[in-house]
Amino acid sequence: MVDLFATRFNHRLPLFVSxxxxxxxxxxxxxxMDWEGxxxxxxxxxxxxxxxxxxxxxxxxxxxxxxxxxxx
Length: 72
Known about the structure:
Distance between the termini: 29 Å
Strand content: 15-25%
Strand order of the largest sheet: 3-2-1-4-5
Mean pLDDT: 95
């Protein structure tokens, strides 16, 4: 699994994707990555949750644990 929205200071899994360049990160900018076939953990900033949901709808095969508020 990959921690999709993390930094070297708060990642919960050995592999993480950082919002800024980091030599310890697997990649930079989780939203620019292909999530097809990925197993991941996502605790995105609130303002990008609609974008994350859209990406999940467009990705046919992925397993993502999404941490988000329960909105009406």
